[in-house]
Specification:
This protein is mostly helical. It has a single domain (5-164), classed as Ferritin, core subunit, four-helix bundle (Ferritin). The protein has helices at residues 5-35, 40-66, 89-116, 120-150, 154-164. The structure holds MU-OXO-diiron (FEO). The site of MU-OXO-diiron (FEO) has 7 residues, from α1, α2 and α3. MU-OXO-diiron (FEO) is lined by residues 18, 21, 53, 56, 100, 103, 136.
């Protein structure tokens, strides 16, 4: 194995976090579809993002296995809020933003571990996730800021929903 046990354990924990993120986005998408059926922009954004989180998970699985480890999949859903309903879109995006911040701090810890273990391959591999987290935090904060501004005004939420279809990561 080209990676240490410590690194493998850290990466495996992270792949589980990404799987949980995918489930979280999926459950949020389903709630929005149920509660705000007409808001296709927000709904599709959440469904698409669930797929994106799954791709993050796959990236980690493939890396661990390529480095001679074994990315056995385990299930541990205690790390995320298992809420399946929300008081409002604002509450949902607040939770999403908090979740992405938590993922960022976990990625930071992994980067720190890779340096401590002098594993520069893993350090290099993790830079993609560092960049990704900057984008994800910014995106969820941007949507949250807009929703905070709008409040529950349905007309403005409708316009936001339309705009969200065009949101691109910068
Ligand atoms: Fe893969 Fe949203 O973190």
């Amino acid at each position: 194995m080209f990676i240490s046990n410590k690194i493998q354990k850290g990466l495996k924990n992270q792949l589980n976090r990404e799987l949980e993120s995918s489930q979280l986005y999926l459950s949020m998408a389903s709630w929005v579809e149920h509660e705000y059926g007409g808001f296709e922009g927000i709904c599709n954004f959440l469904y698409d993002h669930s797929d994106e989180e799954r791709r993050h998970m796959l990236k980690l699985i493939r890396y661990i296995n390529k480095r001679g480890g074994y990315a056995d999949i385990f299930f541990d859903n205690n790390h995320i809020n298992n809420k399946t309903t929300y008081g409002s879109l604002k509450e949902l995006f607040q939770k999403l933003f908090e979740h992405e911040k938590k993922i960022s701090s976990e990625i930071n810890l992994l980067v720190e571990l890779s340096l401590k273990e002098k594993d520069y391959f893993t350090y290099n591999f993790l830079q993609w996730f560092v960049e990704e987290q900057i984008e994800e935090e910014t995106l969820s904060k941007t949507i949250l800021d807009k929703i905070q501004l709008i409040g529950e005004n349905k007309g403005c939420l409708y316009l936001l929903d339309r705009d969200i279809k065009n949101f691109q990561k910068k």
